């Protein structure tokens, strides 16, 4: 029988995408695979932004970045708007004790999040120094969480938000951003399967081989936490949510609105709700997770809701009740380490991308730019400008390398999706429609005028 008010254990990590064995990646992740086999896995879960803070902000608020205010990195002076409510606030409304373990990346001031308890240091935001973020490494955070769970006796249901530093790249002595191979076991590059959307080059394989060590660290830590839940019997009354905020830190992934940038693992496990190993292929957005959790644990009348939640619950999908699947998801990027305004809409078959700024064909975030993989891609894609519009037929071009935006046979698709994207921006008061979005620490930026497509008012 499903618990009426289960504990909620949320486990997040950096820059993972869907790079797990259970999602078909060429790596062994037995602990997370077991979680999926005894829970539910979502094959088409996408995030609202291919970058850390904005995506996490959407997960925690159920709202798009340009609405909740977190349109750039938390350590880049972006914050949620005052008064934004996040998941621990809602759970606190209905009697949950809220706990933060390890990393969060939606504010520089952890006190703003109003957790009842903060258990480990280094919570502010991810930098690139291994020493600074030692406390947030998966194995260390997992140890703290296990100690907490071994208390066993809890007067109230609890929410545990657990954040790992991995798989964030770190800056090495030579200025290169790698995967901290001094702390993690590196695989043989010759045994690594190349990424389908990048050229098969030795340096990219080496990067992947190093990243595998971080993936295994996350897998071990997740396994340790789940094992403690099982040993204490808490698993019988706990919803486990495992996810990440965007794709892996490689070109055309992190920092891009192509699928490798906005794809994200999502695995749930909860007795009698998500415990049968089902795999779901319905389109989901990460703004849908918050309303799903709230749908499971609370009556709507018990919640203090100040803002519209853009996501919608997919709990009926899990319980076998009537459920109307999404037919599209939206993604965006505005600021990362530079101004990069992009908006995108994805359906089951098509992806339409609108670029609002003149940048190279492949935008690289700072950590990806300074990586070996980034260096190799810069040589070929670092100069040509990207187009104003992009349209991909994902059935014909799953790697999103054949832009058909101006092909006559796709004219109706282009018009429909560009109109729907504009209507979404207009409906949600996207500030980008009024011109360049300037953060507080910039006085002016050069404008590039653009016209809205479609005929929406």
Shape: globular
What is the count of DSSP helices, taking H or I runs of 4+ residues? 12
CATH first level of the largest domain: Alpha Beta
Any low-confidence stretches, pLDDT <50, length ≥5?
123-128, 441-457
Please bin the fraction of helical residues: 25-40%
End-to-end gap? 49 Å
* CATH H-tier superfamily of the largest domain: Alkaline Phosphatase, subunit A
Rg is 21 Å
What is the number of domains? 2
Portion of residues in beta strands equals: 15-25%
State the CATH architecture of the largest domain.
Answer: 3-Layer(aba) Sandwich
Quickly give the structural class.
alpha/beta
InterPro entries: Alkaline_phosphatase_core_sf, Sulfatase, Sulfatase_N
GO molecular function: arylsulfatase activity
Protein name: Arylsulfatase A
Domain Sulfatase N-terminal: 6-297
What does this structure look like?
Belongs to the sulfatase family. One of its GO terms (molecular function) is arylsulfatase activity. Residues 6-297 form the Sulfatase N-terminal domain. This is Arylsulfatase A. With 457 residues, the protein is of the alpha/beta class. It folds into 2 domains: 7-319, Alkaline Phosphatase, subunit A (3-Layer(aba) Sandwich); 329-434, Arylsulfatase, C-terminal domain (2-Layer Sandwich). It contains 12 helices and 14 strands. The strands form 3 sheets. Strands 4-3-5-1-8-9-2-10 form an 8-stranded mixed beta sheet. Strands 11-12-13-14 form a 4-stranded antiparallel beta sheet, with helices on one face. A hairpin with a 3-residue loop joins strand 12 (339-346) and strand 13.
């Amino acid at each position: 029988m499903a618990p009426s008010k289960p504990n909620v254990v949320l486990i997040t990590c950096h820059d993972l995408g869907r790079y797990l064995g259970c999602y078909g990646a060429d790596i062994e992740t037995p602990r997370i695979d077991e979680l999926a086999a005894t829970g539910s896995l979502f094959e088409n879960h996408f995030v609202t932004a291919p970058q850390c803070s904005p995506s996490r902000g959407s997960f925690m608020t159920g709202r798009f970045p340009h609405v909740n205010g977190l349109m750039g990195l938390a350590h880049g002076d972006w914050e949620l708007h005052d008064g934004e409510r996040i998941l621990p606030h809602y759970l606190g409304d209905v009697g949950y004790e809220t706990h933060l373990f390890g990393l969060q990346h939606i504010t520089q001031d952890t006190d703003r999040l109003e957790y009842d308890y903060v258990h480990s240091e280094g919570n502010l935001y991810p930098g690139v120094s291994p020493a600074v973020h030692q406390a947030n490494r998966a194995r260390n955070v997992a140890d703290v969480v296990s100690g907490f769970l071994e208390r066993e006796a809890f007067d109230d249901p609890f929410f545990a938000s657990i954040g790992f530093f991995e798989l964030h790249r770190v800056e090495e002595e030579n200025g290169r951003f790698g995967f901290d191979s001094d702390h993690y076991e590196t695989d043989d590059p010759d045994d690594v399967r190349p990424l389908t959307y990048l050229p098969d080059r030795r340096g990219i394989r080496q990067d992947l081989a190093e990243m595998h060590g971080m993936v295994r660290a996350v897998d071990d830590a997740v396994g340790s936490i789940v094992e403690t839940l099982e040993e204490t019997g808490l698993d019988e009354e706990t919803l486990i949510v495992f996810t990440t905020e965007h794709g892996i830190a490689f070109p055309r992934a992190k920092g891009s609105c192509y699928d490798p940038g906005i794809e994200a693992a999502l695995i749930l496990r909860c007795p009698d709700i998500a415990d049968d190993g089902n795999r779901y292929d319905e389109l989901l957005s990460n703004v849908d997770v918050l309303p799903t959790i709230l749908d499971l644990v609370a009556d709507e009348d018990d919640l203090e809701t100040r803002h519209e939640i853009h996501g919608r619950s997919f709990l009926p999908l899990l319980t076998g009740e009537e459920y109307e699947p999404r037919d599209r998801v939206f993604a965006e990027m505005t600021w990362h380490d530079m101004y990069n305004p992009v908006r995108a809409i994805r359906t089951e078959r098509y992806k339409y991308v609108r670029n609002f700024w003149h940048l190279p064909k492949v935008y690289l975030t700072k950590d990806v730019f300074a990586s070996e993989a980034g260096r190799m891609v810069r040589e070929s894609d670092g100069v040509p400008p990207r187009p104003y519009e992009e349209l991909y037929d994902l059935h014909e071009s799953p790697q999103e390398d054949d832009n058909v935006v101006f092909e006559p046979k796709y004219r109706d698709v282009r018009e429909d999706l560009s109109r729907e994207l504009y209507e979404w921006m207009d409906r949600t008061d996207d500030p980008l429609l009024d011109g360049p979005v300037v953060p507080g620490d910039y006085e002016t930026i050069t404008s590039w005028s653009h016209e809205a497509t479609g005929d929406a008012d």
